Amino acid sequence: MSEWMLIAGMAVLTFIPRYLPMAFAGKAVLPPLIERAFGFVPIAVLSAIIAQTVLIRDGSLTMSFANPHLLAALVACGVAIWKKHLFLTIAVGLLVYGLARFILI
Amino acid sequence: MNSHTDTRGRAFAQGARDTVPLIFAAIPFGVVFGALALANGLSREATLAMSMLVFAGSSQFIAVTLLASAAAMPVILLTVFIVNLRQMLYSASLMPHVKAWPQRLRLLSSYFLTDETYAVVANHVMSKPGDQRLPWYYMGSALSMYGNWVLCTYVGMTLGQQIPDLTAWGLDIAMVVAFIGIVVPLLHSLPRVCCALVAGIGSVVCYEWPNQMGLLFSSLLAIAVGLLLERVSSAREVANV
Known about the structure:
Shape of chain B: globular
Strand content of chain A: under 5%
Radius of gyration of chain B: 20 Å
Low-confidence stretches of chain A: none
Number of domains of chain A: 1
Number of helices of chain A: 4
Distance between the termini of chain A: 48 Å
Strand order of the largest sheet of chain A: 1-2
Oligomer: heterodimer
Distance between the termini of chain B: 56 Å
Largest interface: A-B, 69 and 88 residues
Structural class of chain B: mainly alpha
C-alpha cells in the first residue's frame, strides 16, 4: 500500500532531523560560535512564528487594529515586558483577543 | 510512593501544565487534519497512523494537501524533510542539556520534539538551569501534546464534513501569546532584540516562500545577525576596558 510507504517515509524523515543533533550531544566537540548560536534559536524561531501568525491572516499581510491577533499580541508584549510573567501574559492576551473579537464583529 | 518518584511525577505534571495553552491552540489543527486527510483520500487507519507515527502538524498538512494534488511520493517526502529542518535547529539547541541523558531517552524524547514542546522546554531550561528532572518535565509536555494531537485527529475523522470552522475561532492566538510570554523576557540585550526583529520581519517578508522555507531562512538570518552584533558589542566592551 502506497499510503503506508508514504507514512513510513515521513516518519523516518521527520525523526532524523529531530534525533540526529541530540544523538551526538556530548560526543562531538562543538565550536564556541555554534554553542553561542544555540542561545539565539528560541528567540529567532519563535519570533518568526509569532510574526507570521499575527500579521499574515487569511493569506495576506494584515497590519491594522481591526486585526484582533495583532491587538492581543501587542498587549501581550506590553504585559510580558512589564511583568515578565508567562501565565499573566497568556491570560491578558487571551482576554484582549476575546474582547477584540467581541467588539470588532 | 517514595519522595523520588513523587518529585518526578511532579516534574511530569509541571511539564504538562506548562504546555496547556499550546495544547489548546493545537486542537483546531488536529481536528482539521483528521477531516482533511479523509477528504483527500487517506484511509481512516492511515490518517490515525500518520498522527501517531509522524506527529508533526506542518508535515502532515503538507503531505495530505500534496496527496490531493496527486504529487509524486518523492516530492512529498522531500518537502516533509525540508519542513522538518526547523526541528533540527531545536534538537541542536537542546544538545547542551541532554549530554548526560542515555541514548534510549534521547531516542524517545526526540520523537516527540515539536514547536510547542521545544518552546516550553527551552523556557524551562533557561529559568531553571541544571534541573535533574528535565527528562520528566520534557515527557510531561511531550506526551500531553501527543495525546491531544492523536485524540483531535480522531475527533476530526469522526466529525468529518460536519466540523465547525474551528480555525475561524482563531485559537492559534493561544500559541502566539504563550510564545510572546516566553520570548519577550529573553530580550535583555540589543543583539537579542535585533535577532527577534530580523526574524519577525523576515518571516513576514518571506511568507510566500514554499514549504515554510521563509521561517527557516529568516530564523537562520536572525541568528547570524544576533551573533554578529554580540561580537561587535563584546569587542566594544573589550576596547573600553
